[in-house]
């Protein structure tokens, strides 16, 4: 499997830990495994793999994730 990488540290991805309800939808829809559930909350585990597609934002029922697609 190829490891997709983009420019380092330019993604606009932000996860609000206080809003996260730990549903895990972000882990299911992210095509590059940017998120994991740890201690009943989502965590960004591979920030630089984010391609800013917005799938996580569109599927987060708690509005805990933000990204500006195409900016980074």
Automatic annotation (TrEMBL):
Listed A to Z, the keywords are:
4Fe-4S, Iron, Iron-sulfur, Metal-binding
A Gene Ontology molecular function term for this protein is: 4 iron, 4 sulfur cluster binding
| UniProt domain 4Fe-4S ferredoxin-type: residue ranges | 11-40, 41-70
Answer whether the UniProt record assigns the keyword Transcription regulation to this protein.
no
List, alphabetically, the InterPro entries matched: 4Fe4S_Fe-S-bd, 4Fe4S_Fe_S_CS, Fe-S_Ferredoxin
Which Pfam family is one of those matched by this entry?
Fer4_10
Q: Name the domain of life.
A: Bacteria
**Name of protein:** 4Fe-4S ferredoxin
């Amino acid at each position: 499997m190829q490891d997709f990488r983009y420019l380092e540290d330019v993604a606009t991805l932000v996860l609000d830990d206080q809003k996260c309800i730990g549903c895990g939808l972000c882990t299911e829809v992210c095509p590059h495994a940017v998120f994991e559930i740890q201690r009943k909350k989502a965590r960004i585990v591979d920030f630089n793999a984010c391609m800013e597609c917005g799938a996580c934002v569109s599927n987060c029922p708690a509005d805990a994730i933000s990204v500006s697609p195409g900016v980074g």
